[in-house]
């Protein structure tokens, strides 16, 4: 086994194998520094640029609404997020490359800082400043940092710094510098991983609603046909009524029946509730291709209100087997059938007093007034909830009998539908012409009477007489509009826009900014450490020390003898084997003290 003697620092004159001076120096400093510089800067800049390029190239911004009437609160105006028309999974995958790369970059930072650290060790040795030199264990920690730059080395350093208190030597500048850079690099790496994790969990796939001018043909509004623009009386102008000798015919009756039975593919009667008011209005029939269209339209609406007045018109005990007579304090008298068939009788009045029901040639005004008496549900029986209501009477065979006094108001309507929801509903009382159309079509043709009889029957299942009146009033509004539908013609909407739902990635700006900042922090660190490394390597024999400051240099110094003290151009040249010369073999031997140590054997 070859023994080693302890020597002080010396600067031998470099000589070659033949005893001549040589100018051999360790090469590769530029390559090492440039490699570490590019590793710390280029990937992070490229990944950050690629991520931002993807986000802002595929960024989607909500278009302006066609008008303020069509505004929809989609919750997409948050300035703290970016919407990207790109897969959220693919986007976070690109972002995760930074967190994959960050721990690898720690080793390159240590490579760069090893040059000024080697310089400080060289100067301390030349100046015989022993306090500035690392102890063997400190040198061991430094070699482990250079070898892999792993965060676990920080744990060993912490144990050394805190656990060896009172025993350890003072830490010199080389160890402190390398430990500080390792700690900083690990912290930056952790920031990148944390930011990437935050971005990964915060980025979601969401529905994004985009708006554009509507290109789908549609008729959202209604207008009057040419014959219905000026109807001075219900039979005037040939709008919806055609009076013959034996009957009055409804012009456009087939369309009315379709609307009454929800069979029309163009027009339907809809309902809008505002506070306590219930409006029936004409709108377009819902269709799948029209669902993504928001629009403002013109139409007509009717609001009816009814009050139970049975106690003013009926006297309990006057009912006979087949009928129930009624005597109201207004122009509404007669008898209604109470047999198994549901029955309904109505009368219209010239004003709110109900004193005259001669409305044929009269302009009845807006609102107009009417009364109704119904006998329904004989074969079903009375409901317990209605048994004691004083405004509900009963025929001898079980039918429910009630009398209502009502009014109906016709409105010119402008409304807005956004996302299939009414967001604006402006109703203004219509003129006498429109009132004559809607009131006269129902009164003189009785086309809607079956619907009203059915409505009266269903109203009999309400909780009390006022609810019976309310339900019948809404049904009357719906029926009156449906019967008069022949007076109206579909027209394009006032304004419309197309609403499109798109799956996009919702990227919060905060985690994105933190990730980009963390990535670029590595770039700044790389630039600073490169400058420091270049300054250090330009002076003296810094590269000679830095190249040997590793496991290979330590092994060569321990086992290669004189060869390790010769000037070489690469670390591999420190080993005789690299030159084809048979060198020593390494093994272990027991020491005189009873321990073990590595030793070398030579042939």
Q: In which range does the helix fraction lie? A: 25-40%
Give me the number of helical elements.
Answer: 13
Structural class: alpha+beta
How many strand elements?
19
Uncertain ranges: 1-22
Overall mean pLDDT score?
Answer: 85
Shape: rod-shaped
Distance between the termini: 11 Å
Radius of gyration, CA atoms, in whole angstroms: 48 Å
Account of the protein in words:
- The chain is built from 13 helices and 19 strands.
- It is α+β, with helices and mostly antiparallel strands and 603 residues long.
- The strands form 5 sheets. Strands 1, 2, 6, 7, 8, 11, 12, 13, 14, 15 and 17 form an 11-stranded antiparallel β-sheet that branches. The protein has a two-stranded antiparallel ribbon with strand order 3-16. Strands 4-5 form a two-stranded antiparallel ribbon.
- Helix 3 packs parallel to helix 5 and helix 9 packs antiparallel against helix 10.
Please give a quick description of this structure.
It contains 13 helices and 19 strands.
Descriptors:
603 residues, alpha+beta, 11-stranded antiparallel sheet, two-stranded antiparallel sheet, 13 helices, rod-shaped, disordered N terminus
Write the layout of secondary structure elements.
Blueprint: H1 29-57, E1 81-84, H2 88-126, H3 136-148, H4 152-163, H5 173-202, E2 204-213, E3 221-224, E4 241-243, E5 248-250, H6 253-260, E6 267-274, E7 277-284, E8 293-308, H7 310-313, E9 323-327, E10 333-337, E11 343-349, E12 368-376, E13 393-394, E14 400-418, E15 421-429, H8 432-445, H9 449-459, H10 465-483, E16 488-491, E17 495-508, H11 509-537, H12 542-548, H13 551-559, E18 585-590, E19 596-601
Antiparallel strand pairs: 1-17, 2-17, 3-16, 4-5, 6-7, 7-8, 8-14, 8-17, 9-10, 11-12, 12-14, 13-14, 14-15, 18-19
Helix pairs in contact: 1-2, 1-11, 2-3, 2-5, 2-11, 2-12, 3-5, 5-11, 6-10, 8-10, 9-10
């Amino acid at each position: 086994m070859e023994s080693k003697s302890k020597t002080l620092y010396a600067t031998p004159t470099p000589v070659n194998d033949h005893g001549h001076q040589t100018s051999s120096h360790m090469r590769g400093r530029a390559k090492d520094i440039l490699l570490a510089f590019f590793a710390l800067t280029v990937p992070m800049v490229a990944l950050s640029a690629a991520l931002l390029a993807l986000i802002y190239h595929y960024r989607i911004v909500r278009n302006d609404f066609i008008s303020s009437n069509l505004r929809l609160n989609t919750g997409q105006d948050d300035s703290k997020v970016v919407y990207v028309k790109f897969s959220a999974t693919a986007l976070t995958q690109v972002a995760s490359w930074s967190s994959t790369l960050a721990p690898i970059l720690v080793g390159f930072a240590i490579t760069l800082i090893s040059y000024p650290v080697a310089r400080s060790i060289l100067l301390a040795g030349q100046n015989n400043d022993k306090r500035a030199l690392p102890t063997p264990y400190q040198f061991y920690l430094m070699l482990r940092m250079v070898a892999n730059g792993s965060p676990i080395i920080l744990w060993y350093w912490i144990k050394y710094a805190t656990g060896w208190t009172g025993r350890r030597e003072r830490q010199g500048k080389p160890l402190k510098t390398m430990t500080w850079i390792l700690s900083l690099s690990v912290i930056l790496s952790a920031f990148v991983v944390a930011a990437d994790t935050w971005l990964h969990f915060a980025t979601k796939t969401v529905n994004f609603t985009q708006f554009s001018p509507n290109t789908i043909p549609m008729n959202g509004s209604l207008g009057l046909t040419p014959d219905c623009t000026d109807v001075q009386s219900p039979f005037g102008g040939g709008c919806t009524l055609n009076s013959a000798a034996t009957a009055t015919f409804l012009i456009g009756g087939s369309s009315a029946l379709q609307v009454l039975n929800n069979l029309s593919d163009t027009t339907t009667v809809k309902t809008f509730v505002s506070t306590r008011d219930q409006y029936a209005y004409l709108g377009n029939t819902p269709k799948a291709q029209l669902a993504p269209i928001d629009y403002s339209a013109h139409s007509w609406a009717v609001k009816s209100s009814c009050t139970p007045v049975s106690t003013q018109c009926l006297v309990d005990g006057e009912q006979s087997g087949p009928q129930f007579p009624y005597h109201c304090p207004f122009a509404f008298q007669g008898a209604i059938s109470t047999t198994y068939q549901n029955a309904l009788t109505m009368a219209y009045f010239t004003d709110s007093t109900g004193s005259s029901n001669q409305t044929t040639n009269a302009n009845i005004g807006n609102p107009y007034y009417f009364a109704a008496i119904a006998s329904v549900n004989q074969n079903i029986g009375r409901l317990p909830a209605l048994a004691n209501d004083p405004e509900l009477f009963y025929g001898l065979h079980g039918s429910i009998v009630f009398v209502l006094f009502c009014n109906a108001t016709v409105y010119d309507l402008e409304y807005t539908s956004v996302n299939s929801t009414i967001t604006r509903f402006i109703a203004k009382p219509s003129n006498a012409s429109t009132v004559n159309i809607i009131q006269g079509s129902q009164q003189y043709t009785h086309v809607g009477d079956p619907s009203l009889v059915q409505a009266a029957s269903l109203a009999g299942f309400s909780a009390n007489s006022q609810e019976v009146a309310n339900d019948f009033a809404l049904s009357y509004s719906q029926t009156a509009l449906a019967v008069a539908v022949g007076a109206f013609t579909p027209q394009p909407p006032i304004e419309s826009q197309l609403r499109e739902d798109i799956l996009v990635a919702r990227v919060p700006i905060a985690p994105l900014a933190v990730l980009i900042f963390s990535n670029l922090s590595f770039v700044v660190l790389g630039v600073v450490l490169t400058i420091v490394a270049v300054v250090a390597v330009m002076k003296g024999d810094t590269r000679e020390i830095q190249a040997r400051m590793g496991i290979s240099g330590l092994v060569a110094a321990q086992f290669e003898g004189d060869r390790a003290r010769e000037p070489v151009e690469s670390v591999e040249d420190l080993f005789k084997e690299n030159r084809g010369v048979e060198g020593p073999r390494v093994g272990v031997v027991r020491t005189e003290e009873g321990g073990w140590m590595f030793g070398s054997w030579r042939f």
